[in-house]
Amino acid sequence: MLCWDAVMDGPVRVLVVDDQPNIVDMLVTVLGFHGFAVSTAGTAAEALRRAAADRPDLVVLDVMLPDGEGFDVCRDLRAAGHELGIVFLTARDAPRDTVTGLTYGGDDYVTKPFAVDELLARIRAVLRRIRPVGDGPPLPGVLRFADLELDEGAVQVRRAGTLVALSPTEFKLLRYLMANPGRVLSRAQILEAVWDYDFGSASNVVDTYVGYLRRKLDRYGPPLIATRRGFGYALREAGSDASW
Fold first, then answer.
1. Separation CA 35–CA 5 (nearest Å)
2. CB neighbours of 94 closer than 8 A, spacing ≥ 6?
3. Nearest C-alpha neighbor of 208 from the set 180, 161, 169, 157
4. Most exposed residue of 14, 100, 102, 186, measured as fewest CB within 10 angstroms of its CB?
């Protein structure tokens, strides 16, 4: 059993949001056994209150709640600036629902019925994106490209000296682009590197998150993320190659 307290900065707090007591009880038991500190909520309103009070590292979020949808909770959490992991847990398994969850700011999407081991693996993958545990080669402390600076240790991004607020997934996407400056990265490569999961037909999630990044970064300078039609995306300075 992996003891997350030993490899991460303090106890890992997980908020379970679901209105089915049997699922809540099972997740509290399983996550608690694996070393997570677990709190629970049964409604959308309660989820927002608990997230504000407990500041969890990750939320396991049901989509269908008595007073609203988990998608809306996710959107509200992101709008409030909560930089936490969000794993949707739902019986809705249509591809459009997966895409909706991810484009609202979710980090992963698990359908019911689910295998506990799979859910734990997904949770750990999201946590690695948010708070790396050192299971791979160390990355540079600071990545720079043009007037863009990404500080790994502080988990901060600055453009032209101005702090840019990013979600955990946006941060990892930008880090991947900055680690490969000028290289055209396909959607499949980005999905594997950033999401640690093959979403198949949901690859337009990449387009959505690139759009998020562009809107945030372009507020402070010329565009830095270029599209190579039919191939993918690359981090490059505007005007550096007229053939694009």
1. 7
2. none
3. 169
4. 186
CB contact burial 122-154 (16+ within 10 A = b; e otherwise): bbbbbbbbbbbeeeeeeeeeebebbbbbbeeee
Per-residue model confidence (pLDDT) at position 1: 37
pTM above 0.85, yes or no: no
Dump pLDDT digits (tens) for 193-243.
887 665 554 557 888 889 999 999 999 999 999 999 888 999 998 765 544
Closest CA to 12 of 29, 27, 31: 31
Q: Which two tokens stand for residue 166?
A: 């990013």
- Which sign, positive or negative, has the C-alpha torsion 88, 16, 169, 126? negative
> How, if at all, do strands 148-151 and 68-69 pair?
unpaired
